[in-house]
Amino acid sequence: MVIRFILIATVVLALAGPPCGEATSPTGNTASRLIPVQTPSGTVIQAEIADTPQKRATGLMYRDHLKKDHGMLFFFDQPQEWTFWMKNTKITLDLIWMDEKKRVIHIERNVPICTRTDDSCPQYRPNDGAMFVLEIAGGTVDGYKIEKGSKLQFTQP
């Protein structure tokens, strides 16, 4: 009975959100590490790191907004044609796939939100293997002078 109560209390606290005063990232996640990503225009994007299966699966889902100079950088162990979709994502995004040399191999601009309740949201993927994917606010990729073949600069955690 005591173990059951502790488990229920833990779940309730987890669903209630961060404790008062806990640090949150500019995009709303708690305890997220940010790394700077320098774009060809010289602008630096502060990116949350998505380097675990859970972080990659959740991505920017359920967020109400994303600052123009913030994003999420997905790290993968091997190059593949990683597929992304917008299920439960409330903000339009630009998606940027990069190879192991951090060179842009594919871009999807202004990917719209998907409000479907089933799993039929459109999927987006490159034609070549990618090691990294950067998600940024929709409509900002061109202002950063990011195009296919350009290189982004960041260090891997």
Give the SSE layout:
Layout: H1 2-16, E1 34-38, E2 44-50, H2 53-58, E3 70-80, E4 84-85, E5 93-98, E6 104-111, E7 123-124, E8 130-137
Parallel strand pairs: 2-3
Antiparallel strand pairs: 1-2, 3-8, 4-7, 5-6, 5-8
The CATH superfamily bears the name Protein of unknown function DUF192
The poorly predicted ranges are 1-31
Measure the end-to-end span. 42 Å
Number of helices: 2
Radius of gyration: 17 Å
How many structural domains can be distinguished in the coordinates? 1
The best one-word shape is: globular
The profile of the biggest β sheet is:
6 strands, mixed
Task: Write a structural description.
The protein has 157 residues and is an alpha+beta fold. The chain has one domain (23-137): Sandwich (Jelly Rolls), CATH 2.60.120. Helices cover 13% and strands 31% of the residues. It contains two helices and eight strands. It has helices spanning 2-16, 53-58; strands spanning 34-38, 44-50, 70-80, 84-85, 93-98, 104-111, 123-124, 130-137. The strands form two sheets. A six-stranded mixed sheet has the order 1-2-3-8-5-6. The longest helix is centred in the first third of the chain and has 15 residues, at 2-16. The radius of gyration is 17 Å and the shape is globular. The termini are far apart.
Descriptive tags:
single chain; 157 residues; alpha+beta; Jelly Rolls; 6-stranded mixed sheet; two-stranded antiparallel sheet; 31% strand; disordered N terminus
